[in-house]
Structures are given as structure tokens and as C-alpha cells.
Amino acid sequence: MSIRIGIMGYGNLGRGVECAVHQNPDMELTAIFTRRAPSSLHPLTPNVPVYSAGDAQLHKDEVDVLILCGGSATDLPVQTPEFAQWFAVVDSFDNHAHIPEHFAAVDAACRRSGTVAVISVGWDPGLFSLARTYAASILPHGKGYTFWGKGVSQGHSDAIRRVEGVQDARQYTVPVPAAMDAVRSGSGPELTTRQKHTRECYVVLKEGADPARVEREIKEMPNYFADYDTTVHFISAEEMARNHAALPHGGSVLHSGRTGWEEEHGQVVEFSLHLDSNPEFTSSVLVAYARAAYRMKQAGEQGCRTVFDVPVSLISSKTPEELRASML
Amino acid sequence: MSIRIGIMGYGNLGRGVECAVHQNPDMELTAIFTRRAPSSLHPLTPNVPVYSAGDAQLHKDEVDVLILCGGSATDLPVQTPEFAQWFAVVDSFDNHAHIPEHFAAVDAACRRSGTVAVISVGWDPGLFSLARTYAASILPHGKGYTFWGKGVSQGHSDAIRRVEGVQDARQYTVPVPAAMDAVRSGSGPELTTRQKHTRECYVVLKEGADPARVEREIKEMPNYFADYDTTVHFISAEEMARNHAALPHGGSVLHSGRTGWEEEHGQVVEFSLHLDSNPEFTSSVLVAYARAAYRMKQAGEQGCRTVFDVPVSLISSKTPEELRASML
């Protein structure tokens, strides 16, 4: 029997989940929930029912695992505990500083209702967190580094769009190759924010806006740009549409440690992603962890989990025997 | 209270385990077992007792987890099931084709005695197996590749040493950069054995041996060299000692997948290791999984496990709360 997946929220991430479910023969998409008018959605999956988000509870028996595809700022802090009342849920909550309180809220909801949840699933948090933890556990005398990009940062793009005179913007975070090479060499360098990443901005101006002022306001923006070497390129709306519509991303987790009685040997662990589509990759991770949520639910588990608590055997479609014979 | 670690077998791997335990403040080395005369060993750890391997059973209450540091060819198939009678055990059994039968033997021993074991721990099998499985589970429409090196292959070095006229040899497995780049590009290439790796051999000849014959015999050796582009360098014993004493290794697991309804986006996952000391890194992985074995034993678990079954939270010295707050 297939694992019946429901999607809550049908934006980039929800559509990515739909595509990923389509690639996994042990799953089927049985419901999409939306806050928009259900009839306004045009799912890719033939005949999948679309329901109003407010009616989700009525359809809980049609879904084994509900994947929450809302945003971390305002949607998930409310939705994940709410829907954990009725469903096994998986979310991609990515506000690192607020993960402990989100975990506590979701865990409490799960314990009350006897359900299971996996939160903060994706690549960072998610696979990058796993890479950091595997490496740090194995090489305790070492130092970890995370580099992001080259890729589009939605948060930084949005920040530029709020500058007066900006019509549209796309910000790429770019890791500094020399910094990554220094880490790979095993020298364990201390790196400042500025040494690790540069920021490249592509900006479409509104008519009459002053490019010098816009550029200055971007480059001086605290937190977002002031601590980085930032480049601003002014382009036309046509060029934006033609060359900057995709959402590539990726990055690398590096851990440089030393072993031996006198710590005479350097050991470097590196985990990298090169993604043509950031939301579709995140969605693919969510769907794999939905399989784990399903299995934990079947096993009667209750409470909130993160990627740290889930063995990889639970996200694989292979049986333990198949895994040992073919992947070990 | 510290986790009390025992080491069975005090070669490169055993000494590496000793060094790794030394780096983990929640552990202490409480026993070394050897088949040699105990008094002939000179451990690095002050005052650690050295016992005869045959007496291990008598010391089972001094050890929480026994790490088996023998070879996969003849030691571990016997030792792991044997010592699982009395100890929680961890081994690095790396004969991929025989893992299912080794698992079955160890699991049966554990079930009979109520103990827990983790087998095939290291980097391949081990971390590379994890990387392959995470990536394949997340990107089911994709293809995995494993590249090894640049590093010393002990098996291939031994094979050369068996050629008549060879006094000493060191064989480096070298991944082909163009092949790795082709995979990273997302094109999903079909690669032959010859296209993925080359083999570089450094050979010290016995006096009077014919270099042309030795080179030919190496290059034509089936399984080991015949399917590869192999280079043979003849060097002096002094050069061997000076430049080829270390045991570096490493490699990369790459997985290239496609996502989207029409599979329009390429996604590449890469996991790489750059190791100055292959045995010390493997030892460090063993020690981290000894922590997991200890915790599973404390939780009353029984039976054989692999890295696929062990969530990363169990190998970390941090608490789940610390992990969520600092690593997620």
C-alpha cells in the first residue's frame, strides 16, 4: 500500500513536494490543502483533490503524512503544532535561532495527540546539520565551516526590494574560493564573515531612481550587506526575466580535524550541494523524511523529531536487507 | 562516568582507536587485548592494562564497549561473533560482498547473549555508505558514483609485493579529475572502470630482478590492474621510506539526480574525504560509534546494527538539546 501524502500550501515548495512524490513509487499524493480558493489551483497530479486549509481536519483519514510547505516566519510556528493534532507532519522550519522553541511547541502538540513530527527538514537545516554533526562527532579536535552558494538568497533579494527606487532584485551569495581552499588544506584558518562570502546583487530600477543612492543604501544595509564585499549590477527587467528566473543554490560544509597522539595528521570532511532548484531539492528531502514519519507512526512513536534522531534506514525505500547488500 | 573502551588488536587501527579515545573526554581506555605477548606492547596511554586476547572474557566487567581492530579477511568473521557473547562490540568489517553473512552471524550471537553490535563502521563501508543512501533516498531519479583516492590501497600494494622480484611496493589509487567533473556537471555520464581511476605503483626491486617483466606482470594482473591505466615507478628503498611511509586516502561519493515534473533540474550531492591517515580516521569513526553502542546497550537494545540504523544523535557527545540549539 502506498504512503498517502498530503501537501499544506501550494507554492514553490508545495509544487516541489508534488514533483518528488511523483518520483517515489511507494507514495501517492492524496490531498492538497490551500488557503486560496481550491478551484484556483491547478495541480500537476491528475485528479488530486484540493481542499481548503481550514477543512484539513475533516480529511485526516485520507492522509498518512502531511507535509507543511509554508514559510518559517509566520506559517510554520502556527501550522506545525496545529496540524500535529491530527496528522503525522513534516516541516522545513529554517529559522535556526528559534528551532528549540518550535521543537518544544510541536513536541507538546504531538505528546498531547499521540502523533509524530519531523521538523527542520531540508538542506540547511537538514543535510548540512547532519554533515556538521557526523564530522564533529568523529573529529572532536577540529573546526567546522559552512559556505553557502553560489545561490539566490530570497531574504537578501527581498531586503533589496525594500530599498526605495528598486523594482526587482536578485541577490546571489557567493563563497570565496580561496577561503574554501584554505579550509580544504587542513590549516584550520580563522575566517571573518567578509573572507567567506561575497554578495552579488542584480537590480532593476524604477524609472527615475538614482542608481548611486540605491547602490549605497544596499551596500550599507546592516546585517544584510555591510559586513560583506557587495557588488551591485543594474539590469533591465528583460534581462532579469531572461537570466535570473531560476533558483539555484547549494554550498559546502567543511570540517577540518586532527588525529594522532600528537595530532600529527590532518583530516578534512566535505559535504557539498550543487542545486539547480533550491525549492525542489528541499521538497525532495521533505518527501524522503515523510517516509520516515510514516514508519515511525506505524511503529507507534510519538513526539517531535529532527534529522538527528532519524536513522537513514527510515528515509530509504529499500529494506534493511537490501540496504546492507547494495549500499553498505 | 566515562564510557570504558577496550581495544582488541593493537596494530595501526588499534593504535588509532587509542588516539581517538584520548580526544574524547567522555571516554577512557580501560583494556587492550592482544594475541602477542602482552608485555611486548607499548601503549601510548599511561597505565592501561594489556591482556591476552584469550583472557578477554575474564575482563568483560572492565569494558563497556570492545572495539575490534583486526582484519576483515580472517580476524573479524571469527572475532566479532565470538566477542559479542560478552561485550557490546564495534568492528570495521569491510569486505562488502560478505557483509550480509557477517551481519547474520553477529546478529545471531547478539540475540543469543542479549548484546548489541555495530559492524562495518569506518568510511567505506561507513560514511560513504551513509552518503550514498542519503542521496539516493532523496534523489531517487539519479545515479551514484564512488571515487577513491588519491590514496594508498593496502590490498593492491600487497598484490604487487607478491610479484617475483619485488622487495616493497606502494600503490596509489587516483581518481580521474575529468570523470569527477563530468559527474559534477550533472550530465549523469556512464563511466567505465578505466575512466574513473588510474593506478600509480611505486616499486622497490630485489637485486637482479628484471624491471620490464615486473612491470608487465603488474599491469596484466587480472582484477587488480588489468582494467586500469597503470603506471609503474621503480624507486630505491630509501625513497620508499622517505616519501611513501604515510597512509593517506580519501575519495568522493557523488550522486547526480533530477527533480521537477519534467525532471528539468539537475541536483548534485557530493561527500568527500581528504585523509592524511586512513587508519586513524577509520579509528575515529569506530570510536564515535562506540558511543552509540554504549547508549544502545544502556537502553537495553539487542542485536546487530550498521551505520544505517544509528541516528547521528547517538554518535555525538552533545545532548539532543545541545544538538538542536547548536548544530541544526
Question: How would you portray this structure in words?
Answer:
- Chain A is α/β, with parallel strands linked by helices.
- Helices cover 34% and strands 26% of the residues of chain A.
- The first copy, chain A, contains 11 helices and 14 strands.
- In chain A, strands 3-2-1-4-5-6-14 form a 7-stranded parallel β-sheet. Chain A has a 4-stranded mixed β-sheet with strand order 8-9-10-11.
- The longest helix of chain A has 21 residues, at 278-298.
- The radius of gyration of chain A is 22 Å and the shape is globular.
- The two termini of chain A are 27 Å apart.
- The model of chain A has no long low-confidence stretch (mean pLDDT 96).
- At the A-B interface, helix 1, helix 3, helix 4, strand 13 and helix 10 of A face helix 1, helix 3, helix 4, strand 13 and helix 10 of B.
Keywords:
alpha/beta, 7-stranded parallel β-sheet, homodimer, 34% helix, 4-stranded mixed β-sheet, 328 residues
What order do the helices and strands come in, and which of them pair?
2 copies of one chain form a homodimer.
Chain A: E1 3-8, H1 12-22, E2 27-34, E3 50-52, E4 65-68, H2 75-83, E5 88-90, H3 99-113, E6 116-118, H4 127-138, E7 142-148, E8 151-152, H5 154-161, E9 166-175, H6 177-184, H7 193-196, E10 197-205, H8 211-219, E11 229-234, H9 237-243, E12 249-259, E13 265-275, H10 278-298, E14 303-305, H11 320-326
Parallel strand pairs in A: 1-2, 1-4, 2-3, 4-5, 5-6, 6-14, 10-11
Antiparallel strand pairs in A: 7-12, 8-9, 9-10, 12-13
Helix pairs in contact in A: 1-10, 2-3
